[in-house]
Design a protein that fits this description.
Elements lengths: L1 H17 L17 E10 L3 E13 L4 E14 L4 E17 L13 E12 L13 E14 L5 E9 L12 E7 L1
Antiparallel strand pairs: 1-2, 1-8, 2-3, 3-4, 4-5, 5-6, 6-7, 7-8
Length: 186
């Protein structure tokens, strides 16, 4: 399992350092349809703990720096160690603001990449995931905020590598600090 994490880390680093694609931001007065983006992330983990998550998003670029959007979340987990199987589902709203549009102006090898401030509020139904006797918690709200590196992987697509802080970290929260996320936008 450590080899898989090491391989993925090396792959991400290579992508970050090697990509020289010049990203096209919304500089040329795009139509409303051109401002729409979609994407998300997929999580897979197999073994003693099986974890499968699917988190699609859709968003709108209000300006060439400010974006808003919404998404849905689904996670299935199965643990042979705890003899458990359950799922979580919910949704989120998010916003991002580009604070540095082109890191290539500062760091060689990051042409077209940017730094974003990212904020998200997620509500997750955990009633079928956590089974504590005497508890009746079904939904938990989670505010997340942090930074993202936005790296172009094509003319109109990006990979986002995020480091977020969970402002509601508790035993019932599905996210522990820090929250690392890799996502795609098209």
């Amino acid at each position: 399992m450590k080899k898989i994490y090491k391989s993925l880390t090396i792959l991400l680093l290579i992508l970050c350092f090697m990509i020289e694609v010049k990203a096209q931001y919304l500089e040329n007065n795009p139509t409303p349809a051109q401002r729409i983006f979609w994407g998300g992330d997929l999580g897979l983990s197999f073994g003693t703990l099986t974890n499968i998550s699917l988190n699609p998003v859709i968003g709108y670029r209000l300006t060439n720096r400010l974006s808003i959007g919404t998404g849905i979340n689904y996670t299935f987990a199965k643990s042979s160690y705890y003899n458990y199987e359950g799922s979580m589902y919910g949704g989120n709203i998010f916003s991002s603001y580009t604070i540095i549009k082109d890191l290539g102006d500062v760091l060689q090898g990051y042409k077209g990449s940017g730094i974003l401030l990212y904020a998200e509020y997620s509500t997750i139904n955990i009633s079928n995931y956590y089974d504590y006797p005497g508890t009746l918690i079904t939904w938990i709200g989670t505010p997340l905020a942090g930074f993202a590196l936005q790296t172009p992987i094509g003319e109109k697509s990006y990979m986002l590598i995020m480091v977020l802080y969970n402002f509601n970290e508790c035993t019932m929260s599905p996210y522990s600090n820090p929250v690392f996320r890799v996502s795609m936008q098209f």
